[in-house]
Amino acid sequence: MVYVFDHPLIQHKLTLMRDVNTGTKEFRELLKEISMLMVYEVTRDLPTEEVEVQTPICVTKSRVLAGKKIGIVPILRAGLGMVDGVANLIPAAKIGHIGLYRDPETHEPVEYYCKLPADSENRELIVLDPMLATGGSASAAITFIKQRGCKNIRLVNLIAAPEGIERVQKDHPDVNIYVAACDERLNEHAYIVPGLGDAGDRLFGTK
Ligand code: PRP
Ligand code: URA
């Protein structure tokens, strides 16, 4: 399943992020804010259970999260910009990291780091990366995670190209994809059009 979040706040903030005149500081803040808004919807179907709680007035029954614990897995670098927003809402989540970069010539993902929580296979994992372009990086990241025994995976992207969605759906039909926007296409350099440019560079000010 692909879920596109058309909430006005998300769309407004995304427009600001697309703007070439938006600087690194604001870009970083907006990515954090959108990530927080998105994870609210991404976790909508998490199971809950009833517990008893003593309020200042009386004992009552109320609901808390149940089921699998959560893991957050940003794809380096740009996925790092989404971690704080998600972790703000799910502070007990453990955080793993997958380091991948796209080879500029082949556009194929190259892995350089992978460190997941020890009990990842028992967690619901939320994979974060602002950009889903060819889908090569996300698909490779999900493959690494699955090789470590993890089965419950959700992918959260800010902007996706149709090609990326198709690739992840083909390689990992069990993984739900959550995006703020599905853009038109990729250009000849495999950048998303209209997109927002290079997310990692804009986030960290490296260009
Ligand atoms: C970007 C982005 C994704 C990947 C998407 O990372 O953050 O990880 O490209 O492209 P794909 O869907 O075609 O694989 P990049 O390789 O630029 O690395 P960076 O985050 O370190 O800048
Ligand atoms: N990576 C990015 O950061 N932006 C794109 O448009 C494609 C890949």
Overview of this structure, please?
This protein is an alpha/beta fold. Helix content is 33%, strand content 32%. The protein contains 6 helices and 13 strands. The strands form 3 sheets. Strands 1, 4, 5, 6, 7, 8, 9, 10 and 11 form a 9-stranded mixed β-sheet that branches. Helix 1 runs antiparallel to helix 2 and helix 2 packs across helix 3. Bound molecules: 1-O-pyrophosphono-5-O-phosphono-alpha-D-ribofuranose and uracil. The site of 1-O-pyrophosphono-5-O-phosphono-alpha-D-ribofuranose has 24 residues, from strand 4, strand 6, strand 9, helix 4 and helix 6.
Provide tags for this entry:
binds uracil; single chain; globular; alpha/beta; 207 residues; nine-stranded mixed β-sheet
Structure in a nutshell:
By secondary structure, the chain is of the alpha/beta class. The chain contains six helices and 13 strands.
**What is the alpha-carbon Rg in Å?**
18 Å
Number of strands: 13
Oligomer: single chain
- The secondary-structure class comes to alpha/beta
Write the SSE topology.
Elements: E1 2-4, H1 8-18, H2 24-42, E2 48-54, E3 59-65, E4 69-76, H3 80-89, E5 94-95, E6 97-102, E7 109-115, E8 123-128, E9 131-132, H4 136-147, E10 153-160, H5 162-171, E11 176-182, E12 185-186, E13 192-193, H6 199-204
Parallel strand pairs: 1-11, 4-5, 4-6, 4-8, 8-10, 9-10, 10-11
Antiparallel strand pairs: 2-3, 6-7, 12-13
Helix pairs in contact: 1-2, 2-3
This protein binds 1-O-pyrophosphono-5-O-phosphono-alpha-D-ribofuranose and uracil (URA).
Uracil is lined by residues 78, 131, 133, 191-192, 195, 198-200.
